[in-house]
């Protein structure tokens, strides 16, 4: 039985702007959509124009006054809301931009509908690249996220599935989702923290996927029906404006493919990703993986998007890491993960990484012959004597 | 050389004062000022010593809590020295920026966020590495953890609904909610769909040919064809197919209605030339503030259309040209700067050759430091060093050897945990005269440190409050004899607890009765453990044993003119046992002699 895939896209969701200088750019969604069309992936899936989530839908998780505030605030009346701005952590990393609430309702509605379709078995995989904003909390915004569509859609999934597995390959820890489901065991979020391996460059993912498969299949074996929610934040890619990992698009796609291989109802969401051209290509590639369509590495000719200069899978300077470093990097990556917790809510700054140098250059090469001095023998004292009678000193002994 | 190249993002040492430790900063920007100098905009890091004591306690408490919370506490106990040195490696991040001249850079270092998985000891092994875990706000004087926490409570957690039972209805009615735009189960093949798209583009090209306004904007056929191939046309074509249930003929007829061939225009095409010009002007003026641009320049356009137009405009030639100009401007913004190694002598350096002392605060002319006869390094007590640096308050004349000086500059503390770490550990160094029951000469120490004789004839130490306490002979003797009763150290720590004078008096009286026997004993036994030294002239009653000879520091020339009493007072409590015994014997002698008089 072939897999049915649903794809949600609101044509206006790309036309919002967070404000001057802000790294989050909804425009990447229209770019992704355009690429999906030009690669011919559009015709392989069920495409939906999603409905816009209502206040009631959002209040399934969020507090009412927070949603109320989001609805009312706008750049023109911000001054009257200073106290609320502080309480709800809006204004700095999560700026007030025109159309804020509409933007939230569009992406939330899409995620929610994806979950609903999975529940009703209308599709097996639901895709919403506009969603995946995992930092938003119950009553405050955080890390460029205002409404946590992931929590809302997981809540919807929980109506029909006893357990939901949430996997997050964004470079930033999905703290909003973890906090929301901290006390329940129906949603497995802690798994992510130990699943360090998703953050590794391609080669390690290949190695480890077998191990993780065992762990996951153990989990899957337990439950009859389980659903998976996969947040594919693209800021774990190399050359991201904010992130500092070095995944290639291919490596990122491996994770998606791996999760898909379990053949469980899967909700695929977007998330972070601040280098627009990389994000669009990555998500297009992942769409093709989900559809099991192979697409060429060359970008299709598309008049408007000529400024995507690279071919599909390439990111400048990505993926190249030496093996030795990789072996040591396991522990370090885990530490880096912790270092990068909550980074979006912090003033943008680079996180330093440890430089480990494992080349030993001081040992001499054992295969090489050393200098001549090491190979001479000691000369005997009487080496050059003429004969028995040639003595150093006169001796009494006659030979 | 790479070592002297500093780029944006590096952690560096800045020197702003010759006697203070380096400042640790992170370079955020490098700018060239009008005068041609390079200035660095930096983020500040604070050392432990820069933060008030109460905050430090808070930080330590926080660290202890973290230790307890850790799942596998494998940390072995650190030695005192390690703990001491580790304190120097801890920094506090701040969000403050400041601008410093790049010429003050003295070297690179590295600062990392402390994470639980790394052993804290590893920081001690590497040079110039620091860690931080808390964020310090200098204006509000607060310390915050950089990491967030998971908060638990009904305010934070979601309400998880129960699973629906079989047959229970879900409130959501699918059909009303979303709109399907495409079904992959369509009867059309890929080829047919592509053909339809080509037809749609052809229709669009023809429509542009017929339309007057379009033909102005796209004079050539090539341009019309390109315009007709834009996404909007294609999406429209796909929608049309779907709406007509994938029936090609009816879909085609929709493309060419009675009015003429369908023309789909997106924002790029819609806008007139004047609107485009206004947009570019607004962008120059306001930057990417689209709300303002809309309000002031293009109020008849909706915000979404402006944003859409902006992203399309970015693909045009004009944008690319502008970008090139901007890139050329940005070239002037520096990415890295070369700072040569700073070789000028530090004013704190004590020059040995010409015998002049050059301290920062001008601690007085005429002072002379003999190379071999100077004080030991305050931190490691070495007497040998290629170069000496004066450290601490000028009247103290403390000095550091080369390695300890570098350690001080880089890490803000002394290498060895010693009592001489005065500025950090004591709240305020007072002229310790009041707390010390002994008599003082003019040479007092401001800190609770053992005073060392530097051998100079005239001390250049200037005390703020000169205090001379002339204790009687009996008092001085009593101090030695009744040490057990007085318990001097204990008393020093409890300044408000009175000393039991009556008991001391009683003891002294008792002891003095047998003084004569002790003195004779002392005379018969020479002080073999104490090295002899020459007799100084000028002493009226030269005792057989010299007090100073048993002490590790240099000649006591300056004390030759003074009497024993003053001289002996200069000795600190914590001398080795042998010295104290010899001193005690001295005192017996002294007392005996004076009493004889």
UniProtKB/TrEMBL annotation, chain A:
Q: Which UniProt keywords apply?
A: Chromatin regulator, Hydrolase, Metal-binding, Nucleus, Repressor, Transcription, Transcription regulation
Q: Where does a divalent metal cation bind?
A: 170, 172, 235
Its GO biological process annotations read: epigenetic regulation of gene expression
Q: Which GO terms describe its cellular component?
A: nucleus
Which residue ranges have biased composition labelled Basic and acidic residues? 357-376, 386-399
What residues form the catalytic site here? Answer: 135 (proton acceptor)
Q: What class of enzyme is it?
A: hydrolase
| GO molecular function terms listed in the Swiss-Prot or TrEMBL record | histone deacetylase activity, hydrolytic mechanism; metal ion binding
Stored Pfam families: Hist_deacetyl
The yes or no answer to whether the keyword Nucleus is present is yes
Q: What compartments host this protein?
A: Nucleus
Query: What does it catalyze?
Result: N(6)-acetyl-L-lysyl-[histone] + H2O = L-lysyl-[histone] + acetate
EC number annotated for this UniProt entry? 3.5.1.98
Q: Which residues bind substrate per the record?
A: 93, 143, 274
Recorded family membership:
Belongs to the histone deacetylase family. HD Type 1 subfamily.
**The name this protein goes by in its record:** Histone deacetylase
TrEMBL record, chain B:
* GO-annotated cellular components: NuRD complex
Q: Which GO terms describe its biological process?
A: negative regulation of transcription by RNA polymerase II
Q: Which GO terms describe its molecular function?
A: chromatin binding; histone deacetylase binding; sequence-specific DNA binding; transcription coactivator activity; transcription corepressor activity; zinc ion binding
**Record keywords, A-Z:** Acetylation, DNA-binding, Isopeptide bond, Metal-binding, Nucleus, Phosphoprotein, Ubl conjugation, Zinc, Zinc-finger
Q: Which InterPro entries match?
A: BAH_dom, BAH_sf, ELM2_dom, Homeodomain-like_sf, MIER/MTA, MTA1_R1, SANT/Myb, SANT_dom
Positions of the ELM2 domain: 148-259
Pfam families membership = BAH, ELM2, GATA, MTA_R1, Myb_DNA-binding
Q: Which segments constitute the BAH domain? A: 4-147
Q: Where in the cell is it found?
A: Nucleus
Gene3D superfamilies listed in its UniProt record: 2.30.30.490, 4.10.1240.50, Homeodomain-like
Tell me which stretches of the chain form a coiled coil.
Answer: none
Instruction: Report the residue ranges that make up the SANT domain in this protein.
Output: 266-318
Q: Membrane-spanning regions, if any?
A: none
Which stretches are tagged as biased composition: Polar residues? 428-460
Show the PANTHER family listed in the entry.
METASTASIS-ASSOCIATED PROTEIN AND MESODERM INDUCTION EARLY RESPONSE PROTEIN, METASTASIS-ASSOCIATED PROTEIN MTA3
- Protein name per the record: Metastasis associated 1 family, member 3
Native source species: Oryzias melastigma (Marine medaka)
């Amino acid at each position: 039985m072939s897999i049915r895939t649903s794809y949600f896209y609101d044509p206006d969701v790309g036309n919002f702007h967070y404000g001057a200088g802000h790294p989050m750019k909804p425009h990447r969604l229209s770019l992704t959509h355009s690429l999906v069309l030009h690669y011919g992936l559009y015709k392989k899936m069920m495409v939906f124009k999603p409905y816009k989530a209502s206040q009631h839908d959002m209040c399934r998780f969020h507090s009412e006054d927070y949603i109320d505030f989001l609805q009312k605030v706008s750049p023109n009346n911000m001054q009257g809301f200073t106290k609320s701005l502080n309480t709800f952590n809006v204004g700095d990393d999560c700026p007030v931009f025109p159309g804020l609430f509409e933007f939230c309702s569009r992406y939330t509605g899409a995620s929610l509908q994806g979950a609903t379709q999975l529940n009703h078995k209308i599709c097996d995989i639901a895709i919403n690249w506009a969603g995946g904003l995992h930092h938003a909390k119950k009553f405050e915004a955080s890390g460029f996220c205002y409404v946590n569509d992931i929590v809302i859609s997981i809540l919807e999934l929980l109506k029909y599935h006893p357990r939901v597995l949430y996997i997050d390959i964004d470079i930033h820890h999905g703290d909003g989702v973890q906090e929301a489901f901290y006390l329940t065991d129906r949603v497995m979020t802690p798994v992510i923290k130990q699943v360090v391996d998703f953050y590794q460059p391609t080669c390690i993912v290949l190695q480890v996927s077998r191990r993780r498969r065992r762990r996951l299949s153990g989990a899957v074996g337990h439950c009859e029906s389980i659903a998976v929610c996969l947040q594919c934040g693209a800021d774990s890619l190399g050359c991201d404006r904010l992130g500092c990992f070095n995944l290639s698009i291919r490596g990122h796609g491996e994770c998606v493919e791996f999760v898909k291989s379990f053949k469980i109802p899967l909700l695929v969401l977007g998330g972070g990703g601040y280098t627009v051209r990389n994000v669009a290509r990555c998500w297009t590639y992942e769409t093709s993986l989900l559809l099991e369509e192979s697409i060429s590495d060359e970008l299709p000719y598309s008049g408007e998007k000529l400024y995507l200069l690279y071919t599909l899978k390439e990111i400048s300077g990505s993926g190249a890491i030496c093996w030795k470093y990789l072996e040591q990097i396991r522990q370090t990556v885990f530490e880096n993960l912790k270092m990068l917790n909550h980074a979006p809510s912090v003033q943008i700054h680079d996180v330093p990484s440890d430089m480990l140098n494992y080349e030993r250059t001081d040992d001499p090469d054992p295969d090489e012959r050393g200098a001549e001095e090491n190979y001479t023998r000691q000369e005997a004292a009487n080496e050059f004597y003429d004969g028995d009678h040639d003595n150093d000193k006169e001796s009494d002994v006659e030979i | 050389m790479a070592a002297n190249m500093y780029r944006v993002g590096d952690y560096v040492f800045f020197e702003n004062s010759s006697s203070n430790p380096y400042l640790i900063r992170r370079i955020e920007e490098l700018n060239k000022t009008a005068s041609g100098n390079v200035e660095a905009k930096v983020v500040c890091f604070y050392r432990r010593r820069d933060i008030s004591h109460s905050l430090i306690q808070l930080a330590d408490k926080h660290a202890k809590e973290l230790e307890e919370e850790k799942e596998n506490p494998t940390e072995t106990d650190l030695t005192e020295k390690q703990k001491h040195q580790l304190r120097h490696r801890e920094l506090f991040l701040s969000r403050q920026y400041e601008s410093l001249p790049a010429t003050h850079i003295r070297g690179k270092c590295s600062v990392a966020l402390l994470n639980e998985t790394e052993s804290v000891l590893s920081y001690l092994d590497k040079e110039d590495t620091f860690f931080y875990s808390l964020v310090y706000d200098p204006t509000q004087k607060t310390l915050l953890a950089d990491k967030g926490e998971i908060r638990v409570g009904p305010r934070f957690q979601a309400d998880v609904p129960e699973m629906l039972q079989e047959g229970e209805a879900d409130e959501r009615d699918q059909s009303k909610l979303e709109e399907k735009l495409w079904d992959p189960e369509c009867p059309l093949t890929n080829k047919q769909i592509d053909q339809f798209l080509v037809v749609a583009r052809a229709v669009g090209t023809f429509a542009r040919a017929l339309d007057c306004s379009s033909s102005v904007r796209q004079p050539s056929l090539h341009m019309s064809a390109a315009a007709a191939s834009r996404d909007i046309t294609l999406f429209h074509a796909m929608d049309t197919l779907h709406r007509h249930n994938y029936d090609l003929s009816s879909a085609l007829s929709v493309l060419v209605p009675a009015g003429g061939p369908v023309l789909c225009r997106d924002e790029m095409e819609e806008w007139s030339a004047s609107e485009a010009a206004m947009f570019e002007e607004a962008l120059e003026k306001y930057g990417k503030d689209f709300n303002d641009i809309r309000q002031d320049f293009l109020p008849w356009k909706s915000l979404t259309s402006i944003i859409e137009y902006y992203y399309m405009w970015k693909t045009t030639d004009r944008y690319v040209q502008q970008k090139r100009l901007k890139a050329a401007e940005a070239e002037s913004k520096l990415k890295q700067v070369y700072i040569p190694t700073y070789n000028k002598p530090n004013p704190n350096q004590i020059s040995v050759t010409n015998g002049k002392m050059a301290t920062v605060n001008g601690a007085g002319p005429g002072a002379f430091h003999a190379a071999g006869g100077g004080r030991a390094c305050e931190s490691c007590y070495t007497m040998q060093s290629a170069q000496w640096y004066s450290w601490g308050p000028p009247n103290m004349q403390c000095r550091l050897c080369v390695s300890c000086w570098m350690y001080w500059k880089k890490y803000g503390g002394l290498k060895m945990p010693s009592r001489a770490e005065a500025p950090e550990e004591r709240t305020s160094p007072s002229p310790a005269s009041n707390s010390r029951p002994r008599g003082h000469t003019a040479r007092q120490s401001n800190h609770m440190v053992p005073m060392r004789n530097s051998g100079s004839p005239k001390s250049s130490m200037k005390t703020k409050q000169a205090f001379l306490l002339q204790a009687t002979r009996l008092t001085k003797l009593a101090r030695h004899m009744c040490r057990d009763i007085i318990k001097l150290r204990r008393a020093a720590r409890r300044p408000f607890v009175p000393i039991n004078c009556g008991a001391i008096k009683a003891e002294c009286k008792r002891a003095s009765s047998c003084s004569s026997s002790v003195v004779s004993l002392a005379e018969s036994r020479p002080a073999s453990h104490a090295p002899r030294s020459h007799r100084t002239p000028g002493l009226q009653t030269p005792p057989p044993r010299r007090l100073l000879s048993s002490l590790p520091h240099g000649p006591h020339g300056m004390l030759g003119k003074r009497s024993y009493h003053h001289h002996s007072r200069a000795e600190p409590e914590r001398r080795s046992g042998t010295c104290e015994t010899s001193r005690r014997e001295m005192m017996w002698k002294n007392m005996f002699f004076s009493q004889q008089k």
